[in-house]
Amino acid sequence: MAAPFDLKNDDVVVIIGSGAGGGTLGNELAQKGIDVVILEAGGRYEYDDFINDEWDSFAQLAWKDMRTTSGDWRVAKDFPNLPAWIVKAVGGTTTHWAGASLRLQEHEFKTLTTYGKIEGANLLDWPITLADLEPYYAKAEDKMGVTRTNDIPGLPGNNNFKVLKAGADKFGYKECHTGRMAINSQPRDDRNSCQQTGFCFQGCKWGAKWSTLYTEIPKGEATGHLEVRPNSMVIKINHDATGKVTGVVYADKDGKLQEQKARIVAVAGNSIESPRLLLNSESSKYPHGLANSSGQVGRNYMRHTTGSVYAIFDKPVHMYRGTTMAGIVRDEARNDPSRGFVGGYELETLALGLPFMAAFLNPGGWGRSFTTALDHYDHMAGLWIVGEDMPRAENRVTLHASEKDPHGMPVANVHFDDHPNDTAMRDHAYRQGAAIYDAVGATRVFPTPPYPSTHNLGTNRMSENPEHGVVNKHGQTHDIKNLFVSDGSQFTTGGAENPTLTIVTLAIRQADYIAKQMAAKTI
Amino acid sequence: MVTIHEGRPGLSRRELLKRGSIGALLVIAGNAVISPENAWGLETAALKPETMATLIQMARDIYPHDQLADKFYAVAVKSHDEQAGKDAKHKELIEAGIADLDKRAGTGGYRGLGWEEERVAVLKAIETTPFFQAVRGGLVVGLYNQKEIWPVFGYEGESYSKGGYVSRGFDDIEWL
Ligand SMILES: Cc1cc2nc3c(=O)[nH]c(=O)nc-3n(C[C@H](O)[C@H](O)[C@H](O)COP(=O)(O)OP(=O)(O)OC[C@H]3O[C@@H](n4cnc5c(N)ncnc54)[C@H](O)[C@@H]3O)c2cc1C
Ligand code: SF4
């Protein structure tokens, strides 16, 4: 049973956010017998509640609280108040996610060493290596049931994948398959196998796709050591005169402010909210926000270099049937500067329903050029580009000077300018994506601009040297021993791979570290 | 409130002719826009019915799908009438925007321009205005989120209740 903990209980670990990072950390600690309270800003919707409808599901799950944007990225123009497409609900963005689960490559932990200094980029090596993470990656893959690991077969390919595969083969790519997916290709972990429903982005009603909502969280609750408190928006982290954090202030479901005491606080609100909360927790002792002696909190915001390529064929495809991300081409993921950029990218199939296609194919577009594309919606295939983007000091999350949310907390502004390396990579990927579809007879292709960010990374980055980043190699803040960061904001650099497997891996590793430090009474 | 009436609007053909037709298809009667051929009518509450008729044409010119009946465009823009009823500023935005369109179009007004290209040229000239953006922006959800039109585009919508596509063609492509 879920254990309700007292507000004054200062023995608990408080985790802010119940997504990939927070939900996993919470369960891992609870399994070790450590008492945990997860405070989650959003409501709790079980998988029966999910809706097979793009806009209705968006209304149910997405983070819609006001945010602002600036910078030259197109999202700032098309979606000025929606910089990111992420979730506010128990389970966090693991309700919306597609399930692609790839390990980072060895060189992606050492970008400064591998790529060298790049003008306008704030590259840094991670303080850990692939070898450090490998045992934890293995645990994460097992926990999440990733296909093509642990003898789990790959998923069957849907129509969208078959088009990609035929094109990639003709074009000469060597590594194209149905991916490493945290989606059951056969029943596992008391969860169903994928029924090819095609609404992975709207929450998997079969529970076939891994989400902390129906894996980590109930497992943690079953230990009696985990309480998840939904509709609890944390607005400030408190500390004592010595600088140690002592608890958090949150607005409860009725909007009333409460303080939950804590022995340890772990921030896992995703890369926009986590720095927002640290910055908003400024005090006379920490005038620039918590854990911000380096000035790096909120900086180096990364969102992966993305974009999509949709193509129309003279015959039907019905790409929306079946898994949303149904296959991958990995040939461009290597670092090969001869292509005109450093780092690499993955190409992964993606399908949107008609309502989202209308909103995202060419935001702002109108007239026959736009509508004739939609007229052939059922003849379309599509892929998504996900590549490594350059961390930049000025790409950052800051507190808005005047706009506030209903709790009086300044809203986050997200500033992003593409680095020339990002632009060169995106253009290359548009050409390669088009070539794949041309190889199987596309009659028209669409280089589609990036959507609001689904991968948000880097704003509390890991560093060896406390001057270069916010947290150490365990996600522990350099400045405050009992304050941790447990989400994608820890990423020193982004790699070309979808981030969630690495977020989960880091959370498992962090749980071991926290348990050891607690046992040793160092925190 | 705007109501879309299904069924015969109850005007005789003679009466309709007397009132004069707008464009080829839509008729203004009292406070309603009526499509006599297709048996639906749309009553306006805040906006002038002529304004609504022009909005419907404008909606089609922004997102032209020849396989979609006017009715869907009418549904897509009716929220402007509702909003105009609650917000005088919105009413002014729409009425003034449409008046401007008519003025730019010349004597016959916007709906009097026979070719889509002519109307699109007028829209091009105003595409950065808040009026145009409000109409276009509203259409993205107002038009494409109507479940009734999804089959026209070959989109099948909700699939969980049918057991997903695992035995309904997720991999049925044959031409590759
Ligand atoms: C459409 C889509 C598809 C995706 N597909 C993939 C994929 O295939 N593979 C992949 O690796 N990744 C994918 N992602 C990304 C993936 O979902 C995220 O990287 C991952 O969930 C991030 O984990 P997190 O723990 O950092 O944050 P989240 O999972 O977003 O969790 C953060 C939680 O914190 C809560 N929160 C925030 N602030 C506060 C506060 N102040 N108080 C209380 N609670 C708070 C939020 O409500 C949220 O529930 C996808 C994302 C989207 C949107
Ligand atoms: S396609 Fe599979 S994983 Fe995606 S929502 Fe449907 S059943 Fe779940």
Automatic annotation (TrEMBL), chain A:
Which PANTHER family has this protein been placed in? Answer: LONG-CHAIN-ALCOHOL OXIDASE
Which family, according to the similarity comment? Belongs to the GMC oxidoreductase family.
Query: What name is this protein filed under?
Result: GMC family oxidoreductase
Taxonomic lineage of the native organism = Bacteria, Pseudomonadati, Pseudomonadota, Alphaproteobacteria, Hyphomicrobiales
Alphabetical list of Gene3D superfamilies matching this protein: FAD/NAD(P)-binding domain
The record's annotation in Pfam families points to: GMC_oxred_C, GMC_oxred_N
Chain ranges of the Glucose-methanol-choline oxidoreductase C-terminal domain = 391-507
Cited SUPFAM superfamilies: FAD-linked reductases, C-terminal domain, FAD/NAD(P)-binding domain
Q: Provide the Glucose-methanol-choline oxidoreductase N-terminal domain boundaries.
A: 88-305
UniProtKB/TrEMBL annotation, chain B:
**UniProt cross-references to InterPro entries, sorted A to Z:** TAT_signal (IPR006311)
Its recorded name reads Gluconate 2-dehydrogenase subunit 3 family protein
